[in-house]
Amino acid sequence: MSSVVSSTGATAGGAQPRKKYGSLEQQHRTTMRYSYAALSFFVVVFLIPPFYMIMTSLKSSAEISAQQGNPWIVRSPTLENYAHLLSDASFQRYFLNSTWVTALVVIISMTIAILAAFSLSRMGFKGSQVISTGVFLTYLVPPSLLFIPLFQIVGTLGLINNTWVLVLLFPTLAVPFCTWIMIGYFSSIPKELDEAALIDGANYPQILIKIFIPVAFPGIIAATIFAFTVAWGAFLYPLAYLYSADQATLTVGIVRELIRGDVFAWGMIMAACAIAAAPPIIIYTFLMDYYVAGLTSGATKG
Amino acid sequence: MADGSTMVVGSGDAMSPAPRKVGSLKQLSRRRSTAALLLCLPLILLIVGLKIYPTFYAIFLSMLDRKMNNFVGLDNFAFLLTRPSFHLVIFQSCLFAITAVILKAFLGFILAHLMHNIRGKNQRVWRGLLLVPWVIPLSLSTLTWWWLFDPSYSALNWTLEYFGLDAIPFLGTRWNARISVIMVNVWFGAPFFMIMYLAALKSVSEQLYEAAAIDGANAWQKLIYITLPMMRNIILITVLYSLIVTFADFDIVRILTNGGPQDSTHLFATYAFTVGIQSGNIPRGASVSLFMFPILATLAFFVLRDVLKRNKEVAS
């Protein structure tokens, strides 16, 4: 950058505006080139595990155990691991369990979060400030702090080894942050909008459905993705509370059931990981911008 | 929601000025806050029932004996503090959280700057690529790391040997295992720091840099006197938040080492799982988790203070 400064100083007296412009441009281009080079390096490093996951999933068990040559590439690619998994009854079970648990958790969490955020950001009541703060605080309570007392509580409710326990517990992980995001988006809607609607005779349900939800739709997408991510990827609760294979979700099913004894069928395990990682990756590919915006809305304001 | 419509009819009336209406206005606002409270009720029930109650229940549990018949006061905590394996847990949890967060913050900062240099459509693609580690469910990517670290099939070791270096037993010795779990956490968490810092970088006004350039500031000075002060808040909040999450991490250690070798990589969460769920000593497991509480509460206090302060600044 010092050369910019010196060239600015030099051109102050003389008349060489074109040359100065050129050097700035050139410097910019150099910065770009270095940035791309460095980023390429980081991308390669960061993508090693997913790359290797895909490569291994395309190998047959024979090829893996033969250990011949470069392990990073696949010699005779085969889809047999995928075919085997997709026709495997217990893997189908995990996928199904993950799917319906995630769907229910997303619906329940978003309903709770939207109603609460609407109430906290617009209607207000005694103590609503305390609740907003409390919601944020509970977001900071990690699942690993409470899983042991919850084990007892869940046991009393008779939900041990029952997939429904996840429908009960996952909202506690998703709702606080979803509510927090939604409060942010709802608060940014100008008060005049709902006042105008009130004067026109709309009631609160109408205001919520016809104004708030459409206007804050990006926020709803962001919060939904968060709830989805939490429910799809959670590992501790299903590991602690579900012990039989037919109740397991994908994460715990793969980690616990596919690794049997010393017979490591790594091609199949990696194929299972790839299948399980696909839904989040697809969703993020299309909706990443909303999610990042929702996540960083706190970072950009103020 | 049923009284929503009546509420609004009332508020329509309240708009017209009439001294007589004061009473009904008060009534209206009371009804409105009842409705507001009702809308919050599911949230309150959820938090009270499954967050606040379990916290107190954990404290109660931690004071029972193994069979959960007798009250033993603080014996569980005292016992844990005498165990060398629990000293290792405390040491490793702190080492893991602090080292990983520093590395993530540093790497995230570099990545955000590199990303910031690229403008337009390309940035979106590159950002997407770097976010992949953060998008894959952690337990599954950790499984992939385990496979990469596998003692006899390790592809990483194959590469090292290919370049004439010695193979590394990644999970075989104490310090290797400690470093490996930290590396996996950094790999997973650095992209999060990147997007937070990138958003913060974007919000710093270009004019500040132009003004500094005119005053003759070099790149280093711009970083120290503009970028860092402008990003101070977001760096602080992200680091504190990440400290909480990393400190309470479970998935990586559970899958990669399950605490081994010789209990050297156990974190509070994985140790609590081993003691509480696997060995069935619920009270002692609860005590292990509760050791996290003071540390997490302190960190949460600072996060909250910062967030509330920022909200106030934004509001004013």
SSE map:
The complex is a heterodimer of chains A (302) and B (316).
Chain A: H1 2-13, H2 17-46, H3 48-57, H4 61-66, H5 80-86, H6 89-123, H7 128-139, H8 143-156, H9 164-187, H10 191-199, H11 204-215, H12 217-233, H13 236-241, H14 250-257, H15 266-300
Helix pairs in contact in A: 1-2, 3-15, 5-15, 6-9, 6-12, 6-14, 7-9, 9-12, 12-15, 14-15
Chain B: H1 4-15, H2 22-61, H3 75-82, H4 84-117, H5 121-135, H6 138-149, H7 155-162, H8 174-203, H9 206-214, H10 219-247, H11 251-256, H12 268-278, H13 282-290, H14 292-315
Shape of chain A: globular
Question: Can you tell me the residue ranges of chain A where pLDDT is under 50 for at least 5 consecutive residues?
Answer: 1-19
Q: Provide the β-strand percentage band of chain B.
A: under 5%
Number of strands of chain A: 0
**Euclidean distance between termini CA atoms of chain B:** 33 Å
Biggest sheet architecture of chain A: none
Output the helix-strand order of chain B. Answer: HHHHHHHHHHHHHH
Question: What is the percentage of strand-forming residues of chain A?
Answer: under 5%
Average pLDDT for all residues of chain A? 86
CATH architecture of the largest domain in chain A: Orthogonal Bundle
User: CATH homologous superfamily name of the largest domain in chain A?
Assistant: MetI-like
Uncertain regions of chain B: pLDDT < 50 for 5+ in a row? 1-20
Q: Structural class, from helix and strand content of chain A?
A: mainly alpha
Integer tally of domains of chain B: 2
The radius of gyration over CA of chain B amounts to 26 Å
Q: Largest interface, per-chain counts?
A: A-B, 107 and 115 residues
Rg of chain A over CA atoms, rounded to whole Å, is: 26 Å
State the CATH topology of the largest domain in chain A: MetI-like fold
Give the integer mean of the pLDDT values of chain B.
86
Shape of chain B: flat
